[in-house]
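Reviewer 2 asked us to include a model.

Predict the structure of this chain.
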Amino acid sequence: MIDRKYNIISGTAYWASVVAPNTTFDSDGVWEVNVCNLDEDAKATLEADGITIRNKGDEKGDYVQIKRKVRRNDGGVGADLVALQVVDLVEYQQAGGSDFTPVSGGYTSSEDDIPFPTN
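Predicted model (structure tokens):
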């Protein structure tokens, strides 16, 4: 019998695939979330359980990546996402997006003139 231990940590979620699994690198899919900007208590809890704390020196600060494969492979130590509570949802917006100021005299085109697929 596996002795399960549940910890509650708080932070800022990045790259959350919790509604549908992420199939970018695994065709079966992976449920995942990066919990970032961890405080000292969360880091101590995770480190005591042998979970790797990461930091890439960006706005995410200290973070942990929590994953659960759609299809299970036995073995290994890792964090397993059981539940998630969103306190303040900030929807992802791609940098640059479509909000820009057109350059005076710049090229304009109709949709029919575009030389590549639009789908």
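DSSP finds one helix and three strands in the chain. The beta strands are 12-22, 30-36, 64-69. We have added this to the supplementary material.
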